[in-house]
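Let us work through a complete example step by step.
Step 1: write down the sequence.
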Amino acid sequence: MSRVKVMISSDQKAVKLPKGIRPLIRKCCQAVLAEENFNDPAEVSVLFVDDHEIQRLNRLYRDKDKPTDVLSFPLGENGVYDINNETGARLLGDVVISIETALKQARIYDHSLEREVGFLTVHSMLHLLGYDHETSALDAAKMHEKEEMILEELGITRDKEFSEIS
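Step 2: predict the structure and record it as tokens.
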């Protein structure tokens, strides 16, 4: 099993991050790497922003002038990653989550904010490992199946209530 260092920060004041969100994100990152048999030490950063900032980033990097829920910035290609010379860890990339949009989507889908953030983390980690749901319907189906399987293994259900995952 690989070791993953997840650096989590928040650059927003719109939504108070729920207690337990940081361990949840770390567990989601670890679960994706385990599922993908990624056995090398790895590093990933997760940044929470508001809708204004994610819209700015979406416009800048994807030429889409609207807020989105999550952006993934992979640092590797075809399984080759930059390496942190001090630790030897593979630098997977950066995940940026709009906590405002995540909260809106949790309400729309009638599940907890934690479940939504867990989903967005798993989704984005798969992107960092090379998955892309925008290439074809088949790739989208494969990615969705992996996302749901990993969330189920973690015990992150679609229920409204959130209980600490083991």
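Step 3: interpret the result. Residues 160-166 have pLDDT under 50 and may be disordered.
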